[in-house]
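Appendix B.2, paired examples.
Example (i):
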Amino acid sequence: MFDLTGKVAIVTGGTSGIGFGIAKGFVQAGARVALIGRDEARGAWALRELDAAAAAAAIYVKADISDGEQCNRMAQEVERHFGRVDILVNNAGMNIRRHAQDYSHAEWHQIVDTNLSSAFYCAQAVYPAFGRAQGGKILNIGSMLSLFGTTYGAGYAASKGGIVQLGRALAVEWAPQNIQVNTLLPGWIETELTAEAKKLFPDMEAGVLARTPQARWGRPDDLAGIAVALCSSACDFITGTAIPVDGGYSIQG
């Protein structure tokens, strides 16, 4: 039920962190994967990190997905290369940490365009390919800040709250086309983004460990299993959900 053989997945921000962890899981489950990003050197690194057997099953496509036209071209290129598109993982994200009153309008739009608008643009871009494949799966990557408030992160929190609602709206609207849309809410995962946060908040490491019942930070690979499951036929009747992957952080009082 969890076999992805024959499926083609697009993973935005797939050259590092959570995106790369999910991409590795997809390849291990038999899928072919397109890693989307803006840094060609990082794209080349990611392809090298996949094992030799997986190399033919993965490509890197350079695109700035905050630009809707580039999203369209990216989706068309992936479909031309692999012949189909079955899965979209909207993982690309960024943050600029400021007090709310200090954000410039340009910084606000940069965060929202990268984290939220891009997910909508990519969903629109793959919709025709999903139609030709007679269905598809979209997996959005939210955050603990889809649930909680924070300081130094109004733009990020707004974008990650919005991506949950975008997923629910698409799940309802596109259900007749056999498209399932779900969202994962990562807890505190060891990535470049959280490394920056640790520098800003020296007490963060201890605070996260104290609140997380499993008493550790997550790893990008911790999201691979649930991603494979939700994008497989085993979960065809699950749509519109938002699932924390956080070691229990969000349930700890």
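Example (ii):
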Amino acid sequence: MRVVIGEDSALFREGLARLLEDAGHDVVAKADDAPSLVAAVKAEEPDLAVIDIRMPPDRTDDGARAARELRLLMPELGIVLLSQHVESRHSVELVAGGYFGYLLKDRVFDVDDFLDALRRVATGGSALDPEVVGTLMGQARAVDPLDQLTPREREVLALMAEGRTNAGIAARLWLTDRTVETHVTSILSKLGLHESADEHRRVLAVLTWLGLRPGLEKSDGRDPRQAS
């Protein structure tokens, strides 16, 4: 996997590069500001860009804005935002297209899980920190299609939103793979996702959870898990 890193902290940038190289990946460029990042990705056309949100020149959301620009140029570029904060202005649009991850630096506890998340994003999947999912759920609808899900189905769907496979969900919830498959089938049915391919239906289910499916009304930020 060919990777470009956008990170203004030299220690974090070099440490991440070493981690990726030790795992067998090729770090083709490193950038310490948003304009250099965009230029490097355009030049190298990597499989994945790992981007800090707060980068020079403004040190606000420059990395997120660069990610949005790169998404328009390269729809199938894997993009992983790394931050200490949750930024929803640009990430809401990015998450809807796949090939996207959003991880919080202080909550990356396992190297293997982190590397697996990067591989998943580079191949078109998603990887969202649960805290990010919780924030993005503030985009929920006034008429909530999630009301019909059971508490366990909501747990399963939340883990789907983090980008976990059925096996990963089973391990997290201490369920059998078959039980998780049953829950997923029920979730897709209740959300009216019957006719598309399985992977596409999973994406639509996640977008429903995040309140991003086209045609769904947005509300005042009510958390769908609070529904009666």
